[in-house]
Write a structure and sequence with these properties.
It holds the Pfam family Cellulase. By secondary structure, the protein is an alpha/beta fold. The protein contains eleven helices and 14 strands. The protein has one domain: Glycosidases (TIM Barrel), CATH 3.20.20.80. The strands form three sheets. The protein has a nine-stranded parallel β-sheet with strand order 13-12-11-10-8-5-4-3-14.
Length: about 325
């Protein structure tokens, strides 16, 4: 153990000074920094680093651009298939670079295990999301050991979007999902007690209603929702409050995916079709409750896109959230 701690201290000490962001932790229903000040995270998700690197766009400029848009956090979605295809050593090199470049740009990092499906039955929505309980646990053991003590890596999003896909992936209750996440929290905290685990709800991480009577049995965590516009019909606000907004009264809440695009846009699909009316409503809802947020996705191919090209020209939703981040993160 002593040798392991010395190695971690050496790694952290070797990071560039610019990457040494103030550590954040949970107090009550807030994220706070070392001075006890409330921190609300507003940023973006990029595409899978493996995809961005294969597109020839992987480098510090990407993170500098995200910071220039006013973000204070960047989410890194790691697809299980990409993790296996690149190999652990190769993928960790990408994550190391992302953490260094993000820290230098003043951005905190969310590392997200980007699977969609039922971890209990190990049946998933698409081959790119295929994983297992064992692989998921090994991923978090590896990642938590590597970034323990690095304050830039503020969050571990344990499982992107739990869903039974209308029963086609097998049964999945909140109780069962909660217990799976508690196992992962224990694994993470054995190596890294400081980074904040993020636990998503059911229904593709939308529905946190189970938290009312059956919260996660762990301190210092935060919850996740993905409140895309077509998850519920208008008026949105009462439904948001009932299904996930209430969580922010007691615990920190982080909407790690949201976004909108027109029905005729490239890759438009349910549940993301809407316009700025949704953007205005959801940001106002977040800000009234101190909820952190990060739209999907800072990429010109994956939808709903925030940029039209790698020249970083914003889409309609990109311009909307860029302006909101610049205003609110000032």
């Amino acid at each position: 153990m002593t040798r392991h701690l010395l190695l971690l201290a050496t790694i952290v000490a070797a990071l560039p000074a610019a990457a040494q962001l103030p550590a954040v932790h949970v107090e009550g229903n807030r994220f706070v920094n070392e001075a006890g000040e409330t921190v609300v995270f507003r940023g973006v998700s990029i595409a899978d680093p493996d995809k961005v690197e294969r597109d020839g766009q992987w480098g510090p400029a990407l993170f500098e651009e995200v910071a220039d848009w006013g973000a204070n956090v960047v989410r890194l979605p790691v697809h299980p298939r990409a993790w296996r295809a690149r190999g652990e050593e190769g993928y960790l090199e990408l994550l190391d670079q992302a953490v260094e470049w993000a820290g230098a740009a003043g951005l905190y990092v969310v590392i997200d295990w980007h699977s969609i499906g039922n971890l209990r039955t190990e049946v998933f929505q698409h081959p790119m999301y295929e994983t297992s309980k064992g692989e998921t646990a090994r991923f978090w053991r590896t990642v938590s050991q590597r970034y323990a003590g690095n304050p830039t890596v503020a969050f571990y999003e344990l499982f992107n979007e739990p869903t039974s896909y209308n029963g086609t992936l097998g049964r999945l209750s909140w109780h069962e999902h909660r217990e799976l996440m508690e196992d992962l929290i224990d694994i993470v905290r054995a190596s890294d007690p400081g980074t904040i685990p993020l636990v998503g709800g059911l229904d593709w991480s939308y529905d946190l209603s189970g938290v009312r009577e059956d919260p996660v049995r762990a301190e210092g965590i935060a919850y996740v929702t993905h409140p895309y516009p077509q998850k519920r019909e208008r008026p949105w606000e009462p439904k948001w409050e009932e299904t996930w907004g209430f969580v922010a009264d007691t615990y920190p809440l982080f909407a790690t995916e949201l976004g909108f695009m027109s029905a005729d846009g490239p890759g438009a699909h349910i549940p993301v079709i809407s316009d700025e009316t949704y953007g205005e409503a959801i940001v106002a809802f977040f800000e009234a409750r101190g909820i952190s947020w990060a739209p999907w996705v800072f990429d010109p191919q994956w939808s709903p896109q925030m940029i039209q090209s790698w020249d970083f020209e914003p889409t309609v939703q990109g311009a909307f959230f860029r302006d909101a981040m610049r205003r609110l993160n000032d």
